Amino acid sequence: MSMENDSSCAVLPARERVLKEVIQIVAEFSAVAMDEIREHHTIFNDLNWDSLDVVECAMELEEHFGISVPDEVTERIVTVGDIVDGVLVLLAQPRVEGS
Known about the structure:
single chain; 99 residues; Non-ribosomal Peptide Synthetase Peptidyl Carrier Protein, Chain A; mainly alpha; globular; 5 helices
C-alpha cells in the first residue's frame, strides 16, 4: 500500500471535506443552523453577516486550515461556496517556512 496517496489527500483535501469544515466554521458566526447552511447562501443577505463577521471567520479559517487569508480574498467573498473555493486555492499554494 502506497503512502503517497494518503499524504496528497492531507495536503489538498477533497472539496466536500473542506465544504463541511467551512460550514461548521460559518455556523459559528451565523444565526443559521449548520445543517441549514448551503453552498449558495450569501453571507450578507442569507446569513446576515457584517464586515466584522467576515474578519472573524477569516481568522478562524486561518487557524483551522493553517493558511493566511489575504484581504483581497475576503473582499471577493459573496457566498459560502466562495469561501470554500478561496480556502482550496490557498491550500494549493506552496507554503514558505518561516513566513
